[in-house]
Amino acid sequence: MKRVMPFIWLFIAAIIQASLFWRFGFLGVPLNLTLIILLLSVFEKVRYQRIVLGSFFSGLFLEGLSGLPFGSMVLIMVISALLFDRLLFLLPRDSFMHFLILIICGTLIYNLVLISVLSVMKLVGLSGFSPDISLVLAMGISMEMIFNLFGAVALYPLRKWIIL
Amino acid sequence: MANSRKKTQTFVLFIVIALLLVFFGAISHNNFLGDALYAITTPFSRLGIAGLDSVRADFKTVISIKNLISENADLREENKKLLGEVTQYEDLAKENELLRSQLGVVSSDKLSLLSGEIVSFDPVNFSNFTLINKGLRDGVSVGMPVIMPGNIILGKIFEASQAHSSVMLISDKSNKVNTLSQRAQVSGVLNGLSGGSLLMDLIEKSASLEEGDLILTSGLDGVYPKNLIVGKVTKVIADEGGIFKQAHIKPAYAEFQSNLIFVVFNYLK
User: Fold this and answer.
1) Beta carbons of A131 and B194 less than 8 Å apart
2) ipTM confidence
């Protein structure tokens, strides 16, 4: 049960993200709970197999709630997890401040992956949608970073129970 | 080194699985995996949405108690004014119907609606989509307009599966809508901007458009029925050198708290 609980938390996080937090979003951006849980797990140096599984399942849960082409959320989350592992190991992970820096970098990486994957999918004709590269998009990413920072501060004390 | 290679192999394996899912979703006519995921997740998201709306309604009531007396007085006055207008419109409608029947002209404004529910707001950022609980088995097809109670435009069906569909909101930049201002009958084209806001473009420079003007669909694009409520003008932008002016529109659907929607069945041209 202990090994399954984190995935249940991921499921609940995806539901809350798609239902409750959307109402409180700004510029079409809600708090990204699933991303925070993944980044918390990276910060706590959880084994990479669990990180990959967590990213895969969080993508699947978001897939059922998203209007994007099927498979795109799984792809985005798994690629993001790979980049978190490859790029974020350079960041020290031994203080709360480092954790907040990791949240900012992780949010930026996730959004870059999101924009890239959706743009490529649109290019090859798999999707009719990709985010509009503009000042508003940059503002939206900044807003998401701020929301995620607040979410990270709130979830940090609970990390032992929710990490993968 | 061996550990790093094993790590990379694991990640690559999952990326390949994800790509297979994308490929499956693209070629499959019956995406049972997507339908299964939808069936697992949406009952919970619907509960979340319903619960939140209920709590917000209760809070709103408590917070607005002190304003109730003045709000009540304002609403009574507005009600009297609207009653007068409704009576006038009813007379005009009767006259319209009589003239149509005398000329043998059939009204084209009857919309066939299928009611449904928003089951999820897309959790992906910057995505102007939302999921509804009606799909191919309910007769929904791609391109059908979707509205909210009160004839408020929401968007159109972008993708349809058996049990659910994704709705592209009018705030998406690829969703162009021909619009008209109710007061001055000024026409324009609506463009979505990132972040959920709307821009009405190609407005004649000499046209009289003011903040607060109500914007409706004109029906000229053949996608959306006419006279659907788009929103209200929040700012008019008149570029001195340009031949057109623009207006920022606050979408009416953004203020709507209910998750009830209607798919318009008989309008696709």
Assistant:
1) yes
2) 0.84
Assigned token pair, B209: 């458009």
In chain B, what residues touch A70 (CB-CB under 8 Å)?
21-22, 24-26, 31, 33-34
> If you measure CA to CA, which chain A residue comes closest to B25?
A70
Residue B205 to residue B245: CA distance in whole angstroms: 5
CB atoms within 10 A of CB A157: 8
Cβ-Cβ contacts under 8 Å for B149 (sequence gap 6 or more): B256, B258, B260, B262
Instruction: Cite the DSSP H helix spans in A24-95.
Output: 33-43, 48-63, 72-87
**Sequence letter at residue B155:** G
Q: What is the pLDDT of residues B214-249, one digit of tens each?
A: 999 998 888 898 889 999 999 898 877 778 889 999
- The CA distance from B246 to A75, in Å, is 38
Within the 188-247 window of chain B, which residues sit less than 8 Å (CB to CB) from chain A?
Answer: 193-197
Q: Maximum distance among all alpha carbons in chain A?
A: 45
Query: By CA distance, what is A126's nearest residue in B?
Result: B26
Within 10 angstroms of residue B196's Cβ, the number of other Cβ atoms is 23
**Chain A contact for B65, CB < 8 A?**
no
CA distance B94 to B82: 18
CB atoms within 10 A of CB B244: 15
Global confidence as pTM: 0.76
Cα-based torsion angle of the residue sequence B219, B220, B224, B228 in order, rounded to the nearest 10 degrees: -30
Closest chain B residue by Cα to residue A140:
B195
Indicate yes or no: CB of A29 within 8 angstroms of CB of B24: no
Q: Estimate the share of chain B in helix, then strand, then coil, as percent rounded to the nearest 5.
A: 40, 30, 35
Cα distances (angstroms) measured from residue B237 to each of B100, B208, B245: 41, 12, 6
β-strand pairing of B177-181 with B187-192: antiparallel
Residue among A84, A22, A1, A18 at smallest CA distance from A48: A84
Radius of gyration of chain A, Cα coordinates, nearest whole angstrom: 15
Quote the CA–CA distance of B259 and B116 in Å, as a whole number.
9
pLDDT in tens, B119-176: 877 766 666 788 899 999 999 999 999 999 888 999 999 888 888 898 988 988 778 8
